[in-house]
Amino acid sequence: MAHRGLKIALVFEIFHPVVNGIITSGQNLAENLRALGHEVIFLVPDTGEFREPTLGGVAVYRIPSLPCRSYPGMRYVLPWNRAVGEILTREGVQVLHITGPWFLTMAAVRAARNRGIPVVHTFHTMVHEADYLLYMVRFRRLVPLVRRLGWRFYGWYIARCAAHTAPSALACRVLTRQFPCSRPRQISNGVDTALFRREAPSLEELRRRYPWFTDRTVLFVGRLGREKSLDVLIRAAAILRGRPGLERFRLALVGDGPSRDSYRGLVRSLNLEGCVHFPGYLPHGDLLASGLLHRARVFATASTTENQPMTVIEAICCGVPVVVPDVAGIRELVGENGLGVAPGDPRAFAEALEALCTGDDLHRGASRAALAMARRFDGAAVARQMLDLYQEVLRRESGRAPKRCRAPRGRLALGGRLALRGRLAPERSGRYTFRYDEKNDDKSDDRSCNF
């Protein structure tokens, strides 16, 4: 379907120099939207570190912010910040696309609604998972209460968006369970598959920079936080150390994060300094140019909080077999291209890693299957799906008067009664009841999420 040129604003709560899956997929979406003849701008919190006026040809507008101590990388922005509205008006933005619920997003949603600009929301992060909520509270026993309050806070955003998307079937189910009127549409994260088909440095070139790297290196790339469960991979490495045929086995944990020192301490306590390595954070372009991803024997993650993780998709696009926990959300990315194992079980991970590190036939078959699967994540196709949604929203919202939109009152954040009367969908009225079913939240379901 052809579209007239649109002006889209993408909002990020975390931005460069930090790089995560949301930023990577958002940049890819912007690149492909521009290739299709549309204009994109980025609204990001000003960290004082990223000073470039553009990124990949996209104008970057930095909004004054303060650091968030409980979650490194996140920033506080005043919800009534006037600069956001001025930017939307001056740039002639027609669609606002938000990628997560926080205070810059709140300011952007308020400004957009007050100007009659429709808002599209993508549910990227499983914010209800305990490992994320423990950044906000010290005691696990408080997690259920904080989760309920968090969903109520999230409801403010849900009620003010014209459409919702999620990259995985699991995320669609979670959002539908909490907010039945949201009707999320499943649209995958996209990548530039051509980037991963280019010639990688040889093993000899790679070893000149990383002398410890071998042809039996297992790679993880991402945030070194507690939610990534890297202790499981480290303990799996301890199990594999010294096994016949695995003398060259190495585990590389690429990235940085608040739990880095804790993971390093675990490696020292298990005497794994020669086996487990921390190359540090690498910008995305440097990671691809380094050859670490292309030359890895296996890509592994033990995280159970993922919603179609970009790092796993990128490994698939490189033809690298994957080992992941067998849980909804990430299960959708594993078929013949890798192995899914019991979550949180170092021995199960060790057995799967050993099978792919020592079984050449199994490894070759998984690599071929990965390259075949990569076509599903072509960024241009994903951008066309998103454009169809933008155009659908614009047709539906055209002619509607702007609605005055205020930030939620203090009692909302503190857990007071949430009044969302008739706000979740035009055809519904009455009080909306929030609920959370922790026992069923991770169950697999093959039903379509495209309502």
Automatic annotation (TrEMBL):
Residue ranges occupied by any Glycosyltransferase subfamily 4-like N-terminal domain in the UniProt entry: 20-194
Keyword DNA damage: no
Domain of life: Bacteria
The keyword DNA damage appears for this protein: no
Keywords on record: Glycosyltransferase, Transferase
GO MF term set: glycosyltransferase activity
One Pfam family recorded for the sequence: Glyco_transf_4
InterPro entries noted in UniProt: Glyco_trans_4-like_N, Glycosyltransferase_grp1
Protein name (record): Phosphatidylinositol alpha 1,6-mannosyltransferase
